[in-house]
Amino acid sequence: MKMRSGIFLALTAMLAPIPAACSPQSGDALPGGGKAVPEDRDGTAEGRAVHAESGLAIIPLTVRSGKQTHRFEVELAQSPFEQARGLMFRTGMGPDEGMLFPFDPPREASFWMRNTVIPLDIIFIGADRRILNIEANAVPYSEDRRRSAGEAAAVLELIGGRAAQLGLAAGDKVDW
Questions:
Q1: Structure confidence at residue 34 (pLDDT)
Q2: pTM metric for this prediction
Q3: Domain ranges of the chain
Q4: CB-based contacts of 103, cutoff 8 Å, min separation 6
Q5: The pLDDT of residue 48
Q6: Which residue, 98, 99, 149, 153, shows the most beta carbons closer than 10 Å to its own?
Q7: Strands 58-65 and 49-50: what pairing?
Protein backbone atom coordinates (compact mmCIF):
# COMPACT_ATOMS: atom_id res chain seq x y z
CA MET A 1 0.00 0.00 0.00
CA LYS A 2 2.78 2.45 0.90
CA MET A 3 4.47 1.70 -2.45
CA ARG A 4 1.35 2.69 -4.42
CA SER A 5 0.86 5.83 -2.35
CA GLY A 6 4.47 6.84 -2.87
CA ILE A 7 4.25 6.32 -6.63
CA PHE A 8 0.96 8.21 -6.78
CA LEU A 9 2.40 11.14 -4.82
CA ALA A 10 5.53 11.21 -7.01
CA LEU A 11 3.45 11.17 -10.21
CA THR A 12 1.09 13.80 -8.85
CA ALA A 13 4.01 16.08 -7.95
CA MET A 14 5.54 15.63 -11.42
CA LEU A 15 2.29 16.27 -13.33
CA ALA A 16 0.70 18.97 -11.17
CA PRO A 17 2.42 21.95 -12.83
CA ILE A 18 1.46 20.91 -16.38
CA PRO A 19 -2.21 22.01 -16.42
CA ALA A 20 -1.44 25.38 -14.85
CA ALA A 21 1.37 26.06 -17.32
CA CYS A 22 -0.83 25.18 -20.33
CA SER A 23 -3.96 26.99 -19.16
CA PRO A 24 -4.95 29.96 -21.36
CA GLN A 25 -6.87 31.36 -18.41
CA SER A 26 -3.96 31.79 -16.00
CA GLY A 27 -3.28 35.26 -14.69
CA ASP A 28 -5.31 38.12 -13.28
CA ALA A 29 -8.99 38.67 -14.01
CA LEU A 30 -9.87 41.62 -16.26
CA PRO A 31 -13.18 43.42 -16.80
CA GLY A 32 -15.58 41.31 -18.85
CA GLY A 33 -14.25 38.04 -17.45
CA GLY A 34 -11.03 37.94 -19.48
CA LYS A 35 -7.60 37.12 -18.11
CA ALA A 36 -4.21 38.72 -18.56
CA VAL A 37 -1.58 36.21 -19.59
CA PRO A 38 2.17 36.67 -19.87
CA GLU A 39 2.07 35.95 -23.61
CA ASP A 40 -0.38 34.73 -26.22
CA ARG A 41 -0.21 31.36 -27.99
CA ASP A 42 2.67 32.35 -30.26
CA GLY A 43 4.54 34.05 -27.43
CA THR A 44 4.41 37.59 -28.80
CA ALA A 45 2.00 39.72 -26.81
CA GLU A 46 2.71 40.22 -23.16
CA GLY A 47 -0.30 41.07 -21.03
CA ARG A 48 -2.85 40.33 -23.78
CA ALA A 49 -6.36 39.64 -22.53
CA VAL A 50 -8.08 36.38 -23.39
CA HIS A 51 -11.77 35.53 -23.27
CA ALA A 52 -12.71 33.50 -20.20
CA GLU A 53 -14.86 31.04 -22.16
CA SER A 54 -13.07 30.65 -25.52
CA GLY A 55 -9.48 31.34 -24.50
CA LEU A 56 -9.10 33.51 -27.62
CA ALA A 57 -7.16 36.77 -27.52
CA ILE A 58 -9.31 39.87 -27.02
CA ILE A 59 -8.38 42.88 -29.12
CA PRO A 60 -9.85 46.38 -29.51
CA LEU A 61 -11.81 47.10 -32.68
CA THR A 62 -13.44 50.34 -33.82
CA VAL A 63 -16.04 51.10 -36.46
CA ARG A 64 -16.22 54.67 -37.75
CA SER A 65 -19.73 55.39 -38.95
CA GLY A 66 -20.24 58.98 -40.07
CA LYS A 67 -18.92 61.19 -37.27
CA GLN A 68 -19.26 58.47 -34.64
CA THR A 69 -16.70 55.90 -33.53
CA HIS A 70 -17.99 52.69 -31.94
CA ARG A 71 -15.58 50.69 -29.79
CA PHE A 72 -15.66 46.95 -29.27
CA GLU A 73 -13.59 44.30 -27.52
CA VAL A 74 -13.55 41.30 -29.86
CA GLU A 75 -12.24 37.76 -29.70
CA LEU A 76 -9.72 37.05 -32.44
CA ALA A 77 -10.42 33.74 -34.25
CA GLN A 78 -7.26 33.17 -36.31
CA SER A 79 -6.66 29.45 -36.78
CA PRO A 80 -8.85 27.25 -38.99
CA PHE A 81 -10.12 25.47 -35.85
CA GLU A 82 -10.95 28.75 -34.07
CA GLN A 83 -12.73 30.05 -37.17
CA ALA A 84 -14.69 26.82 -37.67
CA ARG A 85 -15.91 26.90 -34.06
CA GLY A 86 -16.65 30.63 -33.99
CA LEU A 87 -19.48 31.44 -31.59
CA MET A 88 -21.07 27.99 -31.72
CA PHE A 89 -22.74 26.89 -28.49
CA ARG A 90 -22.31 30.31 -26.84
CA THR A 91 -25.39 31.49 -24.95
CA GLY A 92 -24.59 35.17 -24.64
CA MET A 93 -22.45 38.08 -25.70
CA GLY A 94 -22.29 41.69 -24.53
CA PRO A 95 -23.37 44.65 -26.69
CA ASP A 96 -19.76 45.83 -27.18
CA GLU A 97 -18.26 42.39 -27.67
CA GLY A 98 -17.86 40.33 -30.81
CA MET A 99 -15.63 37.96 -32.74
CA LEU A 100 -13.31 38.83 -35.62
CA PHE A 101 -12.33 36.31 -38.33
CA PRO A 102 -9.39 37.68 -40.37
CA PHE A 103 -8.58 36.12 -43.78
CA ASP A 104 -5.19 36.23 -45.49
CA PRO A 105 -5.50 36.49 -48.39
CA PRO A 106 -8.96 38.07 -48.70
CA ARG A 107 -11.61 35.76 -50.21
CA GLU A 108 -15.28 35.32 -50.90
CA ALA A 109 -16.74 34.39 -47.52
CA SER A 110 -19.79 32.42 -46.53
CA PHE A 111 -21.07 31.87 -42.97
CA TRP A 112 -23.89 29.84 -41.47
CA MET A 113 -25.43 29.56 -38.00
CA ARG A 114 -25.09 25.82 -37.37
CA ASN A 115 -24.96 25.22 -33.60
CA THR A 116 -25.07 28.97 -32.95
CA VAL A 117 -27.53 29.70 -30.16
CA ILE A 118 -27.73 33.51 -30.32
CA PRO A 119 -28.78 35.69 -33.29
CA LEU A 120 -25.82 37.49 -34.88
CA ASP A 121 -25.07 40.36 -37.21
CA ILE A 122 -22.47 39.07 -39.66
CA ILE A 123 -20.41 41.99 -40.98
CA PHE A 124 -18.21 41.35 -44.02
CA ILE A 125 -15.15 43.63 -44.26
CA GLY A 126 -13.16 44.27 -47.46
CA ALA A 127 -9.38 44.54 -47.90
CA ASP A 128 -9.71 48.33 -47.52
CA ARG A 129 -11.18 47.66 -44.06
CA ARG A 130 -14.57 49.03 -45.07
CA ILE A 131 -17.82 47.17 -44.50
CA LEU A 132 -18.87 45.35 -47.68
CA ASN A 133 -22.27 44.17 -46.42
CA ILE A 134 -24.11 43.21 -43.24
CA GLU A 135 -26.22 40.11 -42.83
CA ALA A 136 -28.39 41.28 -39.92
CA ASN A 137 -30.02 39.10 -37.29
CA ALA A 138 -28.90 35.75 -38.67
CA VAL A 139 -31.30 33.15 -37.27
CA PRO A 140 -29.86 30.73 -34.69
CA TYR A 141 -29.21 27.18 -35.98
CA SER A 142 -29.95 28.16 -39.59
CA GLU A 143 -27.82 26.51 -42.27
CA ASP A 144 -28.67 29.23 -44.81
CA ARG A 145 -25.45 30.67 -46.23
CA ARG A 146 -24.70 34.32 -45.48
CA ARG A 147 -22.30 35.57 -48.18
CA SER A 148 -19.93 38.48 -48.60
CA ALA A 149 -20.59 41.02 -51.36
CA GLY A 150 -17.04 40.66 -52.68
CA GLU A 151 -13.72 39.47 -51.29
CA ALA A 152 -13.59 39.79 -47.52
CA ALA A 153 -10.42 40.42 -45.51
CA ALA A 154 -12.36 39.74 -42.32
CA VAL A 155 -15.76 39.05 -40.83
CA LEU A 156 -17.01 40.64 -37.63
CA GLU A 157 -19.82 39.01 -35.67
CA LEU A 158 -21.84 41.11 -33.23
CA ILE A 159 -24.96 40.33 -31.23
CA GLY A 160 -28.01 40.37 -33.52
CA GLY A 161 -29.48 43.82 -34.08
CA ARG A 162 -26.45 45.72 -32.79
CA ALA A 163 -25.33 46.95 -36.24
CA ALA A 164 -28.75 48.54 -36.90
CA GLN A 165 -28.88 49.96 -33.38
CA LEU A 166 -25.56 51.74 -33.98
CA GLY A 167 -26.38 52.70 -37.59
CA LEU A 168 -23.52 50.66 -39.09
CA ALA A 169 -23.62 50.42 -42.88
CA ALA A 170 -21.66 49.41 -45.97
CA GLY A 171 -18.69 51.74 -46.42
CA ASP A 172 -18.05 52.29 -42.70
CA LYS A 173 -14.36 51.97 -41.70
CA VAL A 174 -13.28 49.14 -39.39
CA ASP A 175 -9.91 49.15 -37.60
CA TRP A 176 -8.24 46.55 -35.37
A1: 41
A2: 0.75
A3: 51-175
A4: 109, 152, 153, 154, 155
A5: 76
A6: 99
A7: unpaired
